[in-house]
Here is the input.
Amino acid sequence: MQETNRTEISTLGEFGLIKHLTQGIEFKNSSTKYGVGDDAAVLEYPDKQVLVTTDLLMEGVHFDLTYVPLKHLGYKAAIVNISDIYAMNGTPRQMTVSIALSKRFCIEDMEEFYAGLRLACNLHNVDIVGGDTTSSLTGLAISITCIGEADKDKVVYRNGAKETDLICVTGDLGAAYMGLQLLEREKTVFKGEKDAQPDFAGKEYLLERQLKPEARGDIIQKLSELNIKPTAMMDISDGLSSELMHICTQSNAGCRVYEEHIPIDYQTAVMAEEFNMNLTTCAMNGGEDYELLFTVPIADHEKVSAMEGVKLIGHITKPELGCALITRDGQEFELKAQGWNPLKEK
Ligand SMILES: [Mg+2]
Here is the structure.
């Protein structure tokens, strides 16, 4: 929260605030016919499948403003939605943004939040076409809806994985989770309870993965260029284990993934050691990586193995075989979804 330069929201009012935050937005997509300013936005998608995804973020549940800057929060809130459109093999086009905020927040705070949001939208060519702001009694709540498009025959669901398909993941896993652990550890410093500065030297990548995740539109484009259509796909928000189980359940299949092939960054490994945590568990269950998990027919083996930033981690099996991780020493462990589920009792 900014202490200096504080303008109360009441000076602009709800309509004034929306106008202020959305001014200067230029539409980049021909499917955007009308945005903010009427009762509804108007979109036009002739001959396309329209993809819609929505996400609700609550302060204290999904984010902690003691260490998450509002600009980063805006960026991440947009990215997690954009990532879901890519995960359907689609192209994100429009976004609506709704915010409930308490008196603690001022206009400058919302400007920061929107700066992050608009940065992510510019990067991915997404038009902000509407939203709502209202007051909240406690804290901040953010609801974002992203709309995208795909050709009818290009949409990729979670339920199409077939026996012998190859399982691929992009980037590396577990870093966002380690970044969160690190931020939680240093939280006392942020709160001013310690005199020292937080110690993040050499761990910048982990923080970046937690505070500024990226959506893998580059991979979607590359797959299209190579003429590869995954048989199943999703983005990794709750952790690889949990997402693999979603794909296998919905595809009525099993899987084998190999510990030695799980992509993990060096900083993640160092941090896991420092925290005395099991590295593979962090990579399998950490979540918030926003990488893509997808399956392709074995015929695409050569093409996917040549793709930069894509790793083959295993294969799809018959459903009777269940979902298992094969460790470096050849042991089989049944996959468990320890993914983060806020509605499930611990
Ligand atoms: Mg998803």
